[in-house]
Amino acid sequence: MKIAVASDHAGFRTKEDIKKYLSAKGYQVEDFGAPNEDSCDYPDSAYPAARSIAAGRNDKGVFVCGSGNGVNIVANKVKGIRSALVYNKEVAGFAKADTGCQVICFGARFMEVDFIKECIDIWFSAPEPAERHLRRINKISRGEK
After folding, report:
1. Backbone angles phi, psi at 63, to 5 degrees
2. b vs e for 93-123, b when ≥16 Cβ sit within 10 Å of the residue's Cβ?
3. What is the pLDDT of residue 134?
4. Which residues neighbour 93 within 8 Å (Cβ) at sequence distance 6 or greater?
5. Which of 36, 46, 76, 105 is the most exposed place for a label (fewest CB within 10 A)?
6. What average pLDDT score do residues 27-37 get?
7. 85 exposed, middle or buried (CB, 10 Å; 0-12, 13-18, 19+)?
8. 43-54 vs 69-77: helix axis angle to the nearest 10?
């Protein structure tokens, strides 16, 4: 599985830890930035990362900024992408099982990296959306047109 990672300066260190974690688990990781902790704008990394998923070059994405809100908004602006702001383990599971999100986002200023890693594992292991959720997901897709 190929995973796109993206961050702004506030999420840089967390993104770097996530990148190592995912690579150690055998995932192929593509890093869209930020390249360091110098101030930068989250759309500059989140848009290309989300577009890579929409185009099929990456399978999923894990995005990080200070609050998680900015990268989440950007990801959801890309046609075909469903993104969730994850702040606890239950939401991590629902992000896949209920909405089939391809991207999950985290707030580095408010979450410990080990907890984020747990949430990522829950998201990966959650079941695919059940039929009743597919009906809703399809309505989201139709709304993009």
Report:
1. -115, 145
2. bbbbbbbbbbbbbbbbeebebeebbebbebb
3. 82
4. 122, 123, 126
5. 36
6. 97
7. buried
8. 40
| pLDDT value, residue 135 | 78
Tell me, letter by letter, the H, E, C secondary structure of 20-63. Answer: HHHHHCCCEEEECCCCCCCCCCCHHHHHHHHHHHHCCCCCEEEE
CA distance 106 to 85: 6
Q: Is 119 a catalytic residue?
A: no
Of residues 37, 38, 39, 20, the one with CA closest to residue 29:
20
For 77, what's the count of Cα atoms within 13 Å in the CB-facing half-sphere? 11
CA distance 46 to 75: 6
**Rounded Cα–Cα distance for residues 18 and 105 (Å):** 12
Pair of tokens at residue 143? 């709304």
Tokens of 65: 């900024």
Mean pLDDT of all residues belonging to the chain = 96
Q: Which of 40, 65, 101, 119 is catalytic?
A: 65
